[in-house]
Fold these 3 entries.
Entry 1:
Amino acid sequence: MAIEEIYIRSETETEARGPFNLEQLVTLAENGQLTAETLYYDASTEQWAAIGANQELLAQVFPQKKKLKIKTKVKMEALNQESESAPPITVDDMLAAAEGRTAETAGRADPTIAMARAAAIGRWAIVLMLIVAAAGESLPSADAIMAVDVPKLLLQPLVALGAIDLVLAVVLALGVVSVYPFVRFRAALGFGFLGFIFWVHGQPMPILALAGGSLGLYVSTVFVSYAPVLVFSALGVAGLGAVSWFLMS
C-alpha cells in the first residue's frame, strides 16, 4: 500500500489533520501522537477507518523491529549473470521496473498518484473559487480601493472579505494546504454574513447560490478522490460565480 498523502483525526475530533506522507505518519507514531485507534481517510471507500483495521497500513506506520541474525555462510552470486531460463538484467529493465512499466506491473495504477492528482484539482478549484468570490466582493468598491478612500472602505465590509479571499487564494496557489482549516472557516463565515445580507434584502436566489458555493468550497478541502472533488468543485465555482454576479449587478 503506497501512501503519499493521507488525512487523520481522532474519534473525538471533527477536523481532519494533514495531509501527511508515510514518513510523517511514522514520526507521529514514534512521538506518541498517533495510535492504532487513530482514524484515517480511506479514499477507496471514502470513509474514515481506524489505522488498526488496515493491517498493511498498520505494519507500515508501526513497523516491527527485525531481529539481527548472523549467517554462517553466504553464497555470493553475480546479479547480472546470464542463464538459460532468464535474460540478463539491463539498466532499461531497472528503470522500467521503477516506473511500473514492466510486464508484471503493467495495468496496475498507483492509488496514491490518483489521490495526489485529485487533491491538486481540488486545490486549484478552491483558488478559482476564492478569486471569483473576491472579485464580486471587491469590484463594486473599485473606485474607493483605487483612491484608497479609507472612510468609504470602512463602510464596505465586503472589501475586507474580498481581501481575505485573495490572500487565501495566493497562499493556496503557492501550495500551502495547511490553510485548509481557515478556508473551511471562510466558507462558513461567508455563508452566514452574505446570507444575512441577501435575506434582509429578500433575495432567495442568491442565498441558494451562496449555499452551493459555500458547500463546494468547504467540501473541496476534504475529499481526495476524483468524483466528489469534480462535483463539488464545479458546484463551488458555479455557486460563488453566481453570487459575484448578484453582488455586481
Entry 2:
Amino acid sequence: MNNNVVLFTKYKKKVLCLYIEEGIPKDLKLFDDEELGIRSVYIGKVKNIVKNIGAAFVEIAPKQNCFLKLEELEKYHVLNRERTAPDLKQGDELLVQIVKGAVKDKAPVCTGKIKLPKDELNRVLEIAPTRTVHSVLYSGRPKYLSFLQGVDIKNIDRIVCVDDTVYQDVDAYIDGLNGVNGFSEEDVARIRGNIGIYSDNEYPVNKLYKIDSIIAELTCHKLWLKSGANVVIDYTEAMTVIDVNSAKSIADKHPDHILRINTEAANEIFRQIKLRNISGMILIDFINDDNDGTDKLIEHVKSLCGKGTEDCNYVDITGLGIIELTRKKTGRPIYELL
C-alpha cells in the first residue's frame, strides 16, 4: 500500500473517510450515506420503464440505478435523439438530478427536471452533448467531500474510492480545484491520476485497510502505548476525561523518563482527539513530574494544539496538575455515531 492514502468506503450504512499518513491513521470521519450525490446531475441511461407505477429506472453509474418518476416529461433533457413528443424510451440518455439518497434497499431518487442556478444550468446544458453516459455534469458536493479540506491533497499518494458514484464525486471535486488556492492545472491532473476505484471483490477494501481494527481502537476505553504505559478515555455529559498511567512501563535511570512517557501519551491523545472527533472540555491527568518536566510537557501540548487538530486550545493546568483543553465542536464524536 502507498504511505499517504485517503480512503472513501462504506461502513454500517455510512460513508467512512480515512486519512492514513505514513501507514498510521491520522483522521477519520463518518457521514450519512444518504448524502451521496444529492443535487448532482448525471447523464443517465433508461434501463427499464414500469408503466403501471409511472416510473423508470435510470442507470447513473455501472450497476447503480435511480428511481425516476415520470412526470412533466416535456421538461426532461433527452440527449440521444430528437423527440417529437414528450415521451421516454428504454435506452434513452437523459439528464437526471439526484433528489434523495438510497434508503436501505431502496434506490436513490432522481428527477428529469434539473434545478440549478441559471449559470450552472446553462453550463450543464452546453457541455452535456459532448459527454458520455454516467458522466457527472454537476456535483452537489456531498458533505463527505469536506473531509478533503482537512488533508494535504498535494502530498497524497493515492485516493481510493469504494464505488463509481464516490469516484465521480471525488474526481469532480478535485477537477474543481484548478486555479483555486494555489492548485495549478498540472497539480489537478496529477492528483486526478491518483484517484482509483477499489475493484478486488475477493479481498474487501475494509479488510485491506483494517477498518474494523481501527474502529475497535477508536471506541475502546484503554489504549496501550509502546512504553507500556496506557491512556484511559472516559466520556461524561459535561467533558471528556483522559488519564495517563505508567502501568507496565519500566522506570529507567534516564532523568526524563516520566517526561518521555507523558510526551508519548500526549502525541497519542491528540491523535485520538482528532480521530474520535472529541470536542468541548477535555481534561488530561498526566503522570506527576517535577516542575521542569511539567513545563516542558505544557510546551509540547501547546505545540500539538497547533498541528491540525481543528481548533484545539490549551487553557491552563490546575493545582492538581490536570491540563485543561477545549476543542470546537465539528459534528458528533465517533462513539455517538456508532
Entry 3:
Amino acid sequence: MIHIVRSVTHPTRNQPHIKQTKTELSRRDIELAAGILNHLPEGRDDDFLFGGDAPLSYTQLRRMLNRIRKDIGFEETIVPQRFRTTVLTDIYDTTKDIKKTQAAAGHTTAAMTLKHYVKGRNPNLNTAEPVSARYGLSNA
C-alpha cells in the first residue's frame, strides 16, 4: 500500500518543494500488486517512495526517468505527468470504471479525470457493433 499524504513539486527545477495535497481526496491509499514489491525500496512509513527521508531532486528524477526510458527502449521523453496519464488511461481501459480511475487519481470529480487524464487510444472504435448486439440487430 502506498499512502499519499503530501505533494512534491520542483517549481525552480532545483530543490523539491514539499506541500500538502491539493484536496482532501488527494490524500489516499493506493493498493499495490504483490509482484511490484520486489522492485520498490524498503523504507519507513513516513519515507518518500523514492529518496527515503527526502524526496528526489529534479536532477535525480530526470536521471531515473532517462534510465527507465533507455531500459524499455522508449524513444520519446518520459515525464511524470505523461506517466500519470498513461497509468490512469490503463486503469480506465482495463476496468472501464471511471470511479476507480478517479479514486486512483485522487480527483474530486470524474469529469476532471476524463478531461485531463483518460486519453482515448483507438479513434476508429466501431460503435455500431456493440449497439447492434445490445439491441439484437444485425449489422448487415
